[in-house]
Amino acid sequence: MVLWGQVLGALLVILVGYLCLPGLLRRRKPQEPPLDKGSMPWLGHAIAFRKNMFEFLKGMRAKHGDIFTVQLGGQYFTFVMDPLSFGPIIKDTQRTLDFVQYAQELVRKVFGYQPTEGDHQMVHSASSKHLMGDGLEDLNKVMLNSLSLIMLGPKGWSLDASFWHEDGLFQFCYNTLFKAGYLSLFGYTKNVAQDLLQAEELFMKFRRFDLLFPRFVYSLLSPREWLEVGQLQRLFHKTLSVEHNLEKDGVSGWLCYMLQFLREQGVAPAMQAKFNFMMLWASQGNTGPTSFWALLFLLKHPEALQAVRKEATEVLGEARLEATQFFTFKLSALQHTPVLNSVMEETLRLAASPTLLRAIQKDYILKMANGQEYLLRQGDKVALFPYLSVHMDPDIHPKPTTFKYDRFLNPNGSRKMHFYKEGKKIHHYNMPWGSGVSICPGRFFALSEIKLFILIMITYFDLELMDSDTPVPPMDPQRWGFGTLQPRHDVRFRYRLKCME
């Protein structure tokens, strides 16, 4: 017994030494950025970073300047905080800074999906074909029908819809957009009522997975939560299986294109189900939360709501319901809403906080905008956090924490695209979708979903906050770096279908 204790003790010492020794030995080389390993071996600054990424990086920038390297859980990340220096990292024509490697590691861990060669290009090709241009128009029609079905009910408009309904704004937006997006992309069976029920149940499971997601990525779940995540993964794999896909009509061309590619690559059906789960999360994890912030900002700023409603009336006409009891909507109007477009850009500036990561394949010299050159070490990762370095920069966006619905409009009503930092024009003035090779391939469909939903809400419904003085809720610090932020708590509102002749 004593011998086994000694052996286990020795193994523990070896393990700790293996994990901590590289960090203890690491020193800043000439020309490298400032190095801050933190006080804890191996962990470094991981705890502070995961507790509140925004505040941590703000403190590091104040301490070290526009570029610094920090240790986070045995890995080294170099953060570049000067947006005028983003260009070489985003473009990287030599492909020294690799996005695909990090993305593949993440999807293996979170979704259990084993990527195949060409996956990244395949997703972008499918999105270009089916989530833009004519493909997007077709999908918008399906989305409009899905929203009509969900918001008016399977039997269409009823007198009950004209009475006030109370709900949490975040819950309402997330629930509605998730179900409409899921049905539009993954199709319907012949039993529409059962489809709606299943979509509702799936949302509840999706929401639970989404709440666990940030800590899952950082491996901070309790044993019970690890078991729960595994159960949720298996449920989604079963629900989104290839067999279930065959039972449905109207599966989107986007999804069919990608699954056909996987079949041709010899990917097993079980792995295709994991791919479907990954695509469900990628397509529906941010649209609901973004629509929440957009509607909340409009309700908190009456002048903005009035401007968007005026524009909606001009491009859509007066609200009315068809005899078929579906929303009447000229989908071409989505291309003629500069005010709403500005509202969306401003909402995303305030609420979207992606992290852009690249794995450094070999030693790389980064030349900053001020002419200073830094050596980035092979094996490290370089990271951009535009929310802090761009979206909240008062030089680029005066009063950055304030919602200004026309911030992205010129006086003549055209889109404003000229922003400056230190007197220099800046190309990356708003980065909610990422940029370069990691830019969101489904951004056009996501934006259309949200705009369609908002236009329906402000055109066909009366809506108001239960308490007009309720403050905008704070952001949940666990969501920093994971797409659209979520509120710490919901906001109550009420809505009713407008009386229509």
Automatic annotation (TrEMBL):
Residues binding heme: C440
Cellular location(s): Endoplasmic reticulum membrane
Gene3D superfamilies linked: Cytochrome P450
GO biological process assignments: lipid metabolic process
Keyword Heme in annotation: yes
Gene Ontology CC terms: endoplasmic reticulum membrane
InterPro entries in the cross-refs: Cyt_P450, Cyt_P450_CYP7A1-type, Cyt_P450_E_grp-IV, Cyt_P450_sf, Cytochrome_CYP8B1
GO molecular function, one term: sterol 12-alpha-hydroxylase activity
Required co-factors: heme
Membrane topology summary: Single-pass membrane protein
Residues passing through the membrane, by range: 6-25
Keywords attached to this entry: Endoplasmic reticulum, Heme, Iron, Lipid biosynthesis, Lipid metabolism, Membrane, Metal-binding, Transmembrane, Transmembrane helix
Record-listed substrate binding positions: K109, N286, K381
One Pfam family matching this protein: p450
Primary localization: endoplasmic reticulum
Family: Belongs to the cytochrome P450 family.
Protein name, as recorded: Cytochrome P450 family 8 subfamily B member 1
Organism of origin: Ictidomys tridecemlineatus
